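CORE FACILITY INTAKE
Project code: CF-77B
Contact: R.S. (postdoc)
Sample description: multi-component assembly, two entities in total
Requested service: structural model of the whole complex
Turnaround: standard
Below are the sequence entries exactly as provided by the requester. Do not edit them.
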Amino acid sequence: MIADFGYGILVLAFLTAIYSVWAAVYGELGKKPALVESARRAMLLTWPLLTLAAAVLIYLLVNDHYEVQFVYEVTSRSMPLYLKITAWWGGQAGSLLFWSWLMSAFTSLVTLRKWDRDREFLPWVIVVGGVTMAFFIGMNVFFENPFAKLYQTFDGHIAPFTLQPANSILFTPSDGRGLNPLLRHPGMIIHPPMLYLGFVSFVIPYAFAIAALVTGRTDDRWIRITRRWALWAWLFLSAGLVLGGRWAYDVLGWGGYWGWDPVEIAAFMPWLTGTAFLHSVMIQEKRGMFKHWNMLLIILTYDLVIFGTFLTRSGVLSSVHSFAQSAIGPLFFAFIGITLIISVALIIYRWDMLKSETQMTSMLSREALFLLNNLLFMGVLVVCFWGVIYPLISELFTGQKVTVGPPFYERATSPLFAALMLLMGIAPLSAWGHSTVKTLGRAIWKPALGAAIVTAVLAFTYTQNIIALVGFFLVALVILVTLYEYGRGALARQRSQGENIFLAFWNLTGRNRRRYGGYIIHLSMMLMAIGILGIELFQVETQGTIAIGDSLELAGYTIKYREVASWDNPGAGVNYTRAVVEVYDRNGNLLGNLHPRKDFYFDSQQPMTIPGQLASLKDEVYVLLIDWEPINQESTTFKIFVNPLVNWLWLGSLLFLVGIIIAAWPDKDPERVTVHAAKRMEQPSAAD
Amino acid sequence: MALMISLLFAAAVFAQDGTPTDDEVNKIAKDLYCPVCESTPLDVCPTDACRQWRELIRKQLAEGKSEEEIKQYFVTQYGARVLSEPPNRWASYLVPVAAFLLGAFMLFRGFRMWIKPMAVESASGEDEAAPIPQDDYIRRMEEELKKRK
């Protein structure tokens, strides 16, 4: 009964979204402002409706309503309450509802903003938000109903139905199948919401871009309105990616953080276009150039967001995330195709209005380098996209199934990433409008010399690996250039304002958060690069089967096997097997105890491997319990990785989030600030 | 010499008691993917099927087969999808490389087109030593600096 109520609400939300699209278009074209206002209110209504539907679903999840198929599939009696709630996005139907719910929250937020200065955008923003939302709610209503119940027909067949079929009885299993144990990790609980937040918030800049195209108001107003939305979208998407990496590192038991899995790439692709977008909009704001390109980038980002959701959710491409399989693929494809065609057609329609206001003057100017940056990001995107669809193309045309694995992506993207790093070192020193080899050379020679010295020292003390040394040179160059730029600003401020150096740094960042937030992001990228170079180039591993008291050796570490124990936790429905190993360094000093674990979940009949990790900035000892003999304990198999420098990656990730938050933190309303400033100018200040 | 090399090779394969070690098995398994657990390389896949594959690799190593022969065995049995990369590698790289080169070509052609009119302008009027226009923020900062000195 309550499930049917939830479904009814979903249908209502679907109709409301459709209505808001209709009312917005009809009201705007027919000059009926009241109808546009009605569309706005309809849009605002979707959020409470979807919240109610979600509340019903959570009620069902928490109260063990296993007659509901979705509840049966993702929860079980032994799961704790918080997991029963977060199981909401642990399966296909629920996560689509979650997507729509977030989407409605964002569109509601945006319709609540003050529209006085750009009223003409409103109906079209509603149209884009409404169409997107209607599509996702429609998926739930017509194909993936989270409220479908299990019915047993007279021939004994059990299947989920939205409405009770004739001659059938409700079937209620006594317990659910339980959430995939891999998804019970805290990282996996926050990772999907973060990604989805990133996904849906990129819809907002897209909506404004389309509104700008439709209304013909093609100045950079749409960019200024949505800049912060794009930054927050980027923050969430980045956080989602980083959390996903950390989750993989902690629970997948392969000693890595990124496997170039199609679903990882699906989330990475909108990030690539989004990053290119964040850079290239600056050209439009400063120089009024490349308006077509920015439009195209945000359109691509939007459709890659839909494509990303589709890849995760449809199972059309096999991947570790293939728990999400259903027949909604063709619809997603159609939606992507239609939105892409309409959006690009709009750009062509407005082509002449989007002409550049100024001209490019130098190939080394900031705007030229930003374009190069865009070219490289697009290059990485093409590699990713091609790698994802190549198996399909191969199967379609040659009938041969192939795998496109990490070697392809690594070989194809690493030169592009290196070039991006080089740009990150040069671009901050180049000026808008005009730069020459001479001016750039004058600015860069000191940091470059410093980076060369760092590289030479590393060559003598750490590694002779050429790829690593090139990488470390670029890392050092970017860090030194960024610090040089940052330091120059802070010193100037210190001298002019008489502030101490820390205060100068603080105020400098506060005054121009976008620039210095960006610098902090560049720095954090370099810390991450150190970690990636370390683990990709220097990771070593060994696997061995040993008895208690024996040890394995790897990269100067000795791992001694102490004991193993196994016990059931009936309440949680898990069997734990936990080994104790000691880690010694080269000189025989005990560094610590590690507890690699293997958890076996009874409800889903799946194991989960939890590594023991001994972390330092130099490297990380990562021990996995692969296999063990319950009876004599004489043979237990361990796999050991030593991952050099990997913790720089996590450190960098944290700094990265700090950087984006600094860049994205809401400003005061710029127009109000101008008024304040004007007032201040009138009053003589104490300092003068 | 050849004998020495083959001896060294044999020593590497048959560590101590003659059974190939896990590390030797994993070295080959790393590049293989079973058709069921897609996107998970064989060396880290926890399923029973993959364990059996690893044992198969161990057996074949013990029989003295080379890495290439073992990979070929799996390809013959299960198709090219067990390899981490498509067999005709150039086909997989062709499209992204071509697309990137096309993009680069278009960009540089664009650069030349955009810059040309400006070059004519600067040749006729401005002289080379003209101060470089900095972006707003730096300029303001430096003006401020001059004022305070």
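Facility notes:
- Residues 557 and 585 of chain A are 5 Å apart (CA to CA).
- The mean pLDDT of chain A is 87.
Invoice: internal transfer
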